Amino acid sequence: MKAILICPDERAEVPLLGWETPLALAPALGFRVVEYWMSHLACAGFKQVLLLGTDRTEELRKVVSNGSRWGVAAEVIDNSEELTPEEAAQKFEALPAVMDHFPGFAEHPLFASYEQWFKALAAWMPHAKMPDRVGLRQRQPGVWMGLHGHVSSEARLEAPCWIGDHVYVGPRAIVGPETILENGSFIESDAKISSSIIGPATFVGRYMRISNGLAWGSTLVDWQTGRQDTVSHTFLLCSLRPQRGGTRAIPWLDRIAEWLSHWNEDEPTESLPFWPKKEADQAMQSLSTSFKGAALPVADEVTRRISR
């Protein structure tokens, strides 16, 4: 049997989701959207999958390759524009599916808005363990955890929530309910996150409060209103990935990234660096001024100062 997957082109409603990768490769609960579809089609008995792409198809080819990971024959076909399901069916003589939702979850569109993205991931959470997924487990009812993560014994996880691969959650941090920490995210001690998604390799600083938000690197989006802000203070929120344009890395963030790359759950952890108090005080003064009357939409004011 042959299946046709239409890869969604850019969607103006959710520009952040397609900033680093095409939407078919958007990270969702530790997997990319296309990986859920490929696993679903393989389990359904399909032997051939054609993927119709328009946006950065070379990146899609690197992930899907020839389909051998799922035991199917896969091919990515370039198109100048996104085909409608009717056009694709006529051209390729097979029933197509648009990857703008999870398999079997058409009632939860992924890319109609940030609110729909959040609600779709929250609804998909109990179904995200695909047959080809290794290491995912329920730490407690309604709390899923991936490989090689570290959650402090002093942290609190409130169901439902998702802790991805290589995630760190520090002492006294509160995660959940309805919270997703994507792969490689780093949550410092005393942070509080609820009804939110923390993007891949995103650092959330000590005492940070995020609610009803999508935090992606240094960008914060209120998924209820779509309002977007950039946090300039890296000790509060930033990406752990190398900066674009060769921007000089921040040494203590490099230490955290290195810590994550070498972390072993059977070994004791070393203490982590904090932002120097003088610089933290200056940043806090700046924040208290800029937040007056126009607070960030998804972050409460930091309630205590960072200390050494």
Summarize the structure.
The chain is of the alpha/beta class. Helices cover 21% and strands 24% of the residues. The chain has helices at residues 33-43, 57-64, 85-92, 114-124, 251-262, 277-290, and strands spanning 2-6, 27-28, 31-32, 48-53, 73-78, 96-98, 137-140, 143-145, 150-151, 156-157, 161-163, 168-169, 174-175, 179-181, 186-187, 192-194, 196-198, 202-204, 209-211, 213-216, 219-222, 228-230, 237-239, 299-300.
Descriptive overview:
- The strands form five sheets. An eight-stranded mixed sheet has the order 7-8-11-14-17-20-21-22, with helices on one face. It has a five-stranded mixed sheet with strand order 9-12-15-18-23, with no helix packed on it.
- It is α/β, with parallel strands linked by helices and 308 residues long.
- The chain folds into two domains: 2-127, Spore Coat Polysaccharide Biosynthesis Protein SpsA, Chain A; 137-300, 3 Solenoid (UDP N-Acetylglucosamine Acyltransferase, domain 1), CATH 2.160.10.20.
- The protein has helices at residues 33-43, 57-64, 85-92, 114-124, 251-262, 277-290, and strands at residues 2-6, 27-28, 31-32, 48-53, 73-78, 96-98, 137-140, 143-145, 150-151, 156-157, 161-163, 168-169, 174-175, 179-181, 186-187, 192-194, 196-198, 202-204, 209-211, 213-216, 219-222, 228-230, 237-239, 299-300.
- β20 (213-216) and β21 form a beta hairpin.
Largest sheet: 8 strands, mixed
Topology pattern, helix = H, strand = E: EEEHEHEHEHEEEEEEEEEEEEEEEEEHHE
Helical residues, percent: 10-25%
Shape: globular
Which structural class fits the helix and strand makeup?
alpha/beta
Low-confidence stretches: 245-251, 264-281, 283-308
Total of helices: 6
Overall tally of structural domains:
2
Quote the average pLDDT.
84
Task: Enter the CATH topology name of the largest domain.
Answer: UDP N-Acetylglucosamine Acyltransferase, domain 1
CATH class of the largest domain: Mainly Beta
> Strand fraction band?
15-25%
Radius of gyration: 20 Å
Q: Give the termini distance in whole angstroms.
A: 61 Å
